[in-house]
């Protein structure tokens, strides 16, 4: 493991290089070490573990059967089982997810009844506006950042090499240019040294930046998108036992005594979009305008959003946010891997990485290792 | 009529001020003069007729029954009838619209048969990829810019006042601040003089800028959106008799011996987005990336898009484009007017203005004139 440029790195060839140690790349690396210990493996991360600017750190960390794409329930359940134990402490907590609607849905019951044991959750809502509740008792919350950290650490324990603070640029013929970064005393990030390694297989798991990296480095056209999601806080009381709530696409996750909001992503952001704060009838906010509008539209049903507890901020830096990959440019597309050429594979998480990401990362590792079985599929 | 700041303007009060002389505002003004000649009316336009930066000038100018929202067919037909005659020469031309699909649709027939009389249209396509054609024989093409010009001129003939090169800022209590603009010899637009007029009713018909104008001037929150649409050219031969084609959301309108493309709008652009050119595997283009991706996805079905005739440009200024209002933030929402308070009404055209815009603008004029009948509705 090389964390900084003071540690000389002299390797020149690997069987597999994984670019990006978010949860997708880190878990893929861990699974590769388990399934194919003979393969020489390098995991490269531009930041630390987890990258402070990556999507993993700010992902909601909500697993719910509601989110499992049809036909992939077993793979989603396997992802949940990984989170619940084998990855070490990822702050996994079984917590029901309660989806609130104006109209009854299959299996729903009255909101006041479903949330009777959770007055702190009921207090956020107007049960008259959201009278129906559909409960997923199998849901859970966890820390995606801890998933990336633990998976990367286990990959290293199992024999992977790890380069931190290193930008990796895939190029033709399996060459990967590694730019080891350091920070000057004026806080400028500079390239300290450049090295080239050769890899038989390169996995590009760079999140929202992955598709552009493939296009620039390999000249491969892809049609994936990205979106900038902010996660504002709602400072109203929650407890260790509070359920996760969802209404109108907005997810409210109990966290640290309050609630962390995961706004819906409706569509991609255009190339060239620079996130900026919004304004509500002239008052500047750190929340982007589209998210503000969604929250305003929900204020009647979730009156707590209209109170002083919502962290609107005054400028963009006040509200945590990150770029998220959108596979196929769609907010509802599951995580995927895609062969770009004989050497390169793109691995994307995106909005459904919480529920299915580890299964997809495992699937790529198994494919690279030549293992036909999947642990979630019945034998035969 | 006041076209420039050299013409002194001293009026102080109107019954109705219409902000914006695109086709929506100009036609609303014309209808107001016809329905309520007693009302003193001022039409204000920031640019000329039509505004070179407005959505009207670059609108596709394609009327099709395919685009009429369910239940509003009569209003759409009335819009068509206005374009066909009463507005003077708007280059109206009856031209079938042929919607091409991979799967049969109700009433569709084989593409090769439907386009047998139009070899120049058939030559753009691969009929094996788009074997089915649904023809709208009632479709027509026209020049939206001429609609705005003719409607504004007729409003003036009928007694409206018209201020060009004037920015109008609605404020509280029916005050409208008029900023008369001139251009310095270094091509800078400056405010030459400011005047305030009072209006009993203000119609904000400023296109994509309308919702922001209402919010800034009146403190009213709206949830409308906007999108930046570019209209690249495809230089392949067309004739005066060529049909309009549509495939995968892309409209190809025969114009000036070639084809003008109207790409689909899938969703709003975020606030703060600054349009920029895209790049295709490293080659810079003037077309935005999202439009490029749509065209690339269509290249198998419409091989002409992959030839040298497509005007990709090298930078944004090479490809005509304009901001379009999206009512309710949705690309499929019809034009609308919306009361903001007792004095102000927002009038929005958007993607369906070609098919329904004049009906909606008439409806607002009739409402302001106190006329309950609509010309497209059966009496009684």
TrEMBL record, chains A, B:
InterPro entries in the cross-refs: FAD-dep_OxRdtase (IPR006076), FAD/NAD-bd_sf (IPR036188), FixC-like (IPR039651)
Domain of life per record: Bacteria
Positions of region (Disordered): 229-251
Keywords on record: FAD, Flavoprotein, Oxidoreductase
Annotated FAD dependent oxidoreductase domain residues: 15-276
Family the UniProt entry places it in: Belongs to the ETF-QO/FixC family.
UniProt protein name: FAD dependent oxidoreductase
One MF term in the entry's GO annotations: oxidoreductase activity
PANTHER family given in the database record: ELECTRON TRANSFER FLAVOPROTEIN-QUINONE OXIDOREDUCTASE YDIS-RELATED
Cofactor: FAD
Pfam families in the record: DAO
């Amino acid at each position: 493991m090389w964390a900084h440029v003071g540690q000389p790195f002299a390797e020149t060839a690997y069987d597999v290089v994984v670019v990006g140690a978010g949860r997708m790349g880190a878990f893929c690396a861990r699974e590769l070490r388990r399934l194919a210990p003979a393969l020489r493996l390098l995991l490269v991360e531009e930041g630390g573990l987890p990258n402070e600017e990556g999507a993993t750190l700010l992902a909601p960390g909500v697993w719910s059967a509601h989110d499992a794409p049809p036909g992939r329930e077993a793979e989603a359940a396997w992802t949940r089982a990984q989170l619940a134990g084998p990855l070490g402490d990822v702050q996994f907590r079984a917590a029901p997810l309660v989806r609130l609607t104006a109209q009854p849905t299959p299996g729903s019951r009255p909101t006041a009844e479903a949330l009777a044991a959770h007055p702190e959750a009921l207090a956020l809502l107007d049960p008259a506006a959201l009278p129906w509740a559909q409960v997923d008792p199998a849901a859970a919350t966890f820390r995606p950042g801890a998933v990336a950290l633990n998976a990367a650490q286990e990959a290293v324990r199992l024999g992977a090499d790890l380069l931190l603070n290193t930008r990796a640029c895939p190029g033709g013929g399996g060459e990967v240019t590694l730019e080891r970064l350091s920070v000057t005393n004026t806080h400028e990030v500079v390239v300290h040294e450049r090295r080239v390694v050769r890899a038989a297989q390169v996995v590009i798991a760079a999140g929202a930046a992955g598709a552009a990296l493939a296009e620039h480095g390999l000249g491969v056209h892809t049609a994936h998108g990205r979106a900038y999601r902010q996660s504002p806080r709602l400072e109203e009381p929650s407890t260790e036992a509070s359920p996760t709530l969802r209404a109108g696409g907005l997810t409210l996750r109990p966290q640290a005594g309050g609630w962390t909001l995961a706004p819906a992503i409706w569509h991609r952001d255009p190339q060239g979009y620079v996130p900026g704060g919004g304004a509500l009838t002239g008052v500047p906010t750190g929340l982007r305008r589209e998210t503000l509008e969604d929250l305003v539209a929900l204020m009647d049903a979730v009156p707590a959003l209209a109170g002083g507890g919502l962290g609107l901020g005054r400028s963009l830096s006040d509200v945590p946010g990150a770029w998220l990959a959108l596979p196929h440019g769609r907010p509802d597309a599951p995580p995927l891997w895609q062969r770009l050429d004989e050497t390169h594979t793109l691995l994307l998480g995106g909005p459904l990485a919480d529920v299915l990401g580890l299964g997809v990362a495992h699937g790529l590792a198994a494919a690279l290792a030549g293992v036909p079985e999947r642990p979630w599929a019945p034998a035969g």
